[in-house]
Design brief:
glycosyltransferase, about 35% helix, 6-stranded mixed beta sheet, 7 helices, Orotate phosphoribosyltransferase, Rossmann fold, about 180 residues, two-stranded antiparallel sheet, alpha/beta
């Protein structure tokens, strides 16, 4: 599926930032993909969600946003697709309900993971492991940007198909993380 060039340009303009950015690995880069700037623009978020709807398998029972970048995308995608949403915390809540997954129930259901950027695939794999322990069937992950750093292949080895809206090359900035 081809993303309209005008939408790619809007994503690039809103989310591709220049400066000195530190990654969790300690690496410093000069360009960064900031999904929060995309999510903060209601019209852009709506249009991205409308494109992402095409990546949702028809038998999906729930969209699960991965904390934190996947949450606004999952909400917008849920509104655009009519598929209920759930939200995965990095760790189980230490008070109240003590849940790690909030929103729509996931046990025994076909769920699609939603995240902003996939690099190595580690975050999606951790999320899938939690959901699978809860009885969810996880076969698809959706993201806005696949950084082409091996994440898709790593997910495929765990029987998860990565369905990105864009690859890094589509943004025209090879180093934007």
């Amino acid at each position: 599926m081809t993303v309209p060039a005008s939408l790619v340009a809007r994503i690039r303009s809103a989310a591709c930032q220049r400066g000195a950015f530190h990654l969790p690995t300690g690496q410093v880069i000069d360009e960064y993909f900031d999904e929060y700037l995309l999510a903060a623009d209601p019209a852009l978020l709506r249009d991205v969600a409308a494109e992402l709807v095409q990546h949702v398998p028809p038998d999906t029972d729930a969209l699960v946003g991965v904390e934190l970048g996947g949450i606004p995308l999952a909400v917008a995608l849920s509104a655009a697709s009519g598929v209920p949403a759930a939200f995965l915390r990095r760790a189980r809540k230490s008070y109240g309900t003590f849940r790690q997954v909030e929103g729509h129930p996931v046990g025994g259901r076909r769920v699609v993971l939603v995240d902003d950027v996939v690099r190595s695939g580690s975050q999606v794999l951790r999320a899938a492991a939690v959901l699978r322990r809860l009885g969810a069937q996880v076969a698809t992950a959706i993201c806005v940007l696949d950084r082409d750093l091996g994440g898709g292949a790593r997910l495929a080895r765990e029987r998860i198909l990565l369905r990105p809206l864009l690859a890094t090359a589509a943004l025209g900035r090879e180093s934007a993380v």
